Amino acid sequence: MPFMARADNGVHNIPNLLTALRILLIPVFVGVFYLPFNRARLACTVIFAVAALTDWWDGYLARRWGQESPFGAFLDPVADKLMVAVALVLLVQAEPTPLLAMPAAVIVGREITVSALREWMAELGVRAAVDVSLLGKFKTTLQMLAIGMLIYRDTLHGLPIFQTGLALLYLSAILTLWSMVVYLRAAWPRLTEEPVPAAQPIADEGTRVADPVPKPKHSAAKPCIHAK
């Protein structure tokens, strides 16, 4: 049996470590973003690209080595959303324009909505109805590409990187809304079903339910009049 096939299938395995690395890179990414150097944006782009590659690599290795785990299934989307949200916040802070703030708000708002929807569906035991789809994975890939270009910002060989990244971000925002609609449609029967009324006690056939015993009526005490 190959060594990798004997690797731990629980929390401590290579795919989960790659996912954890993606989270650990977030504070590094934030710190480098604010460094007062000309190459700080290039360094941030490299860090973000490494994080994006671990997003693909951890899932591939987990499936290849049979190391898919509940912990990995929980941590992987969390790491994705944290990295994307932090990057968008930094970009909007650095370029405070409505053109950038609008798709960023759409993407972050969608992630909050779908996360809440999945948590609620999990409580009902039907979370599989809103599992990550192929459309969602494509949307995430497009987001990573767009954000990476926006981080780099500078023109490369005559190609307007920032403007191209902004256009891709709008496209990913449209896919974000589309995938949210897909998830909401899948969950709609559960969202609109009538609540089940509480069960009422039913008497056995042939028996008579006793009438409730009336409470005794207490007459108001008459005031006692003392003769003077």
Keywords:
228 residues, mainly alpha, Four Helix Bundle (Hemerythrin (Met), subunit A), disordered C terminus
The name of the CATH superfamily reads: CDP-alcohol phosphotransferase transmembrane (TM) domain
Global geometry: globular
The CATH topology annotation reads as: Four Helix Bundle (Hemerythrin (Met), subunit A)
Q: End-to-end distance, in Å? A: 111 Å
Write up this protein.
- There is one protein chain.
- The chain is mainly α and 228 residues long.
- The protein has a single domain, classed as Four Helix Bundle (Hemerythrin (Met), subunit A) (Up-down Bundle).
- Helices cover 64% and strands 0% of the residues.
- The N and C termini lie far apart (111 Å).
Task: Give the gist of this structure.
This protein is 64% helix and 0% strand. The protein is mostly helical. It has one domain: CDP-alcohol phosphotransferase transmembrane (TM) domain (Four Helix Bundle (Hemerythrin (Met), subunit A), Up-down Bundle).
Helices and strands, with pairings:
Elements: H1 14-33, H2 40-64, H3 70-94, H4 98-123, H5 134-152, H6 161-192
